């Protein structure tokens, strides 16, 4: 069970602020995607793969797999940290099948860690409901206050 699950006041506001932070990140202007913090320690990113994201063999390029898996695991973990931005320190990923055009969901969940280092897991589910990839990331608490980041506003 996540640390302090359900005990923190303002968890919903923090979750909405993280969703706003995701929308404001310049990199996310390149993707038709949306983040939902489902609850403490769980995040979901919905996105659409189109042919503009394909490698030469006609399937989604691996950078898309990494980005969405990393983001889903990251936000699942950062949902448990209300004061600081986490940083990815390592990420391992396993490709299990190619992704073609269509909707995809990245499901992230906190796996372990309570103070400085967090471990998150994520998987990609393609339009056929099949797992296309999975990954595990390690995220470390940074010195960057969430409150200083554009788009993060738990009061708004």
UniProtKB/TrEMBL annotation:
Is Hydrolase one of the keywords UniProt gives this record? yes
Cleaved signal peptide residues:
none
UniProt-recorded Gene Ontology molecular function terms: hydrolase activity
CDD domains referenced in this protein's UniProt entry, alphabetically? PaaI_thioesterase (cd03443)
Domain of life, per lineage: Bacteria
**Stretches assigned to the Thioesterase domain:** 58-132
Q: Which UniProt keywords apply?
A: Hydrolase
EC assignment: the record states 3.1.2.-
Entries under InterPro entries matching the protein: HotDog_dom_sf, PAAI_dom, Thioestr_dom
The protein's enzyme class: hydrolase
Against Pfam families, the record matches this protein to: 4HBT
Q: Can you say what this protein is called?
A: PaaI family thioesterase
Q: What is the originating organism of this protein?
A: Sphingosinicella rhizophila
């Amino acid at each position: 069970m996540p640390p302090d699950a359900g005990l923190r006041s303002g968890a919903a506001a923090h979750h909405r602020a993280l969703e706003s932070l995701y929308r404001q990140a310049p990199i996310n202007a390149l993707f038709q995607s949306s983040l939902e913090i489902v609850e403490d320690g769980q995040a979901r990113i919905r996105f659409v793969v189109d042919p503009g994201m394909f490698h030469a063999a006609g399937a989604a390029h691996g950078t898309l797999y990494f980005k969405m898996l990393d983001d889903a695991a990251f936000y699942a973990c950062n949902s448990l940290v209300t004061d600081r931005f986490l940083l990815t320190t390592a990420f391992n990923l396993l490709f299990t099948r190619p992704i073609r055009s269509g909707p995809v969901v990245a499901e992230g969940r906190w796996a372990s860690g309570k103070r400085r280092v967090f471990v998150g897991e994520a998987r990609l589910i393609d339009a056929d409901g099949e797992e296309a990839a999975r990954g595990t990331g390690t995220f470390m608490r940074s010195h960057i206050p969430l409150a200083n980041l554009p788009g993060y506003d738990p009061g708004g």
